[in-house]
């Protein structure tokens, strides 16, 4: 299978990313579905946003958002790592690619330390901090899984017209437009992009 997008696609169960048993059950289901093959592409897309300014942010929000947006991605990646390693070994090609073995963590330019997206619209402290942490997780994965030739990338999908996107203002990018560009970008990623932060069009974003 070329894609395991953990949102229920192709009959794949959608795990509760804060529940280890749910994640393990999803991994077991996918393993059964693959019938001995490896998994080429894991997209960690689960995420939540809670409003909060520098003055109003709470420890509870910070913990909840971090657990979903960072710890969840880490646990899902750990659970599916054996399948990704298997796919990488099975693929008779040099280098890295999303058709070989890859982890794509859906991040956000809102977590960019250099140039945080729409800071004037809202602080969203817990969300921004979680995405900055997810970027670091991606970087660590890229170094830790390099010998396995598993490509690891953080990807900003754009300010998209989803429930989350609309919650922070008038999002300019449709879901279809974002997905079309993302799929094109994924098809062109290589070992040169390992450990990088890119947007939906494949352009590098400053950390």
UniProtKB/TrEMBL annotation:
Q: Which SUPFAM superfamilies match?
A: NAD(P)-binding Rossmann-fold domains
Q: Which Gene3D superfamilies match?
A: NAD(P)-binding Rossmann-like Domain
User: Could you state a single Gene Ontology molecular function term?
Assistant: oxidoreductase activity
**InterPro entries attached to this UniProt entry:** Fungal_SecMetab_SDRs, NAD(P)-bd_dom_sf, SDR_fam
Give the UniProt entry's GO cellular component terms.
cytoplasm
Matching PANTHER family, A to Z?
A: C-FACTOR-RELATED, SHORT-CHAIN DEHYDROGENASE/REDUCTASE
Q: Which family does it belong to?
A: Belongs to the short-chain dehydrogenases/reductases (SDR) family.
Its recorded name reads C-factor-like isoform X2
Q: What is the lineage of its organism?
A: Eukaryota, Metazoa, Chordata, Craniata, Vertebrata
């Amino acid at each position: 299978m070329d894609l395991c997008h953990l949102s229920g696609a192709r009959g794949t169960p959608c795990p509760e990313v804060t529940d280890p048993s749910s994640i393990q059950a999803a991994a077991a289901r996918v393993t059964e579905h693959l019938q001995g093959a490896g998994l080429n592409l894991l997209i960690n897309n689960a995420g939540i946003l809670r409003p909060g300014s520098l003055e109003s942010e709470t420890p509870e929000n910070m913990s909840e958002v971090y657990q979903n947006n960072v710890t969840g991605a880490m646990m899902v990646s750990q659970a599916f790592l054996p399948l990704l390693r298997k796919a990488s070994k099975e693929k008779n090609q040099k280098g890295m690619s999303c058709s070989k073995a890859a982890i794509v963590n859906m991040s956000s330019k809102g977590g960019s330390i250099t140039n945080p997206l729409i800071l004037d619209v809202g602080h969203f402290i817990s969300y921004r901090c979680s995405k900055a942490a997810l970027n670091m997780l991606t970087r660590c994965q890229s170094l830790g899984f390099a010998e396995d030739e598993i490509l690891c990338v953080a990807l900003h999908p754009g300010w998209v017209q989803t429930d989350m996107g609309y919650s922070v203002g008038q999002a300019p990018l449709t879901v279809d437009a974002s997905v079309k560009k993302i799929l094109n970008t994924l098809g062109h990623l290589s070992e040169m992009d390992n450990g990088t932060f890119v947007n939906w069009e494949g352009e590098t974003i400053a950390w």
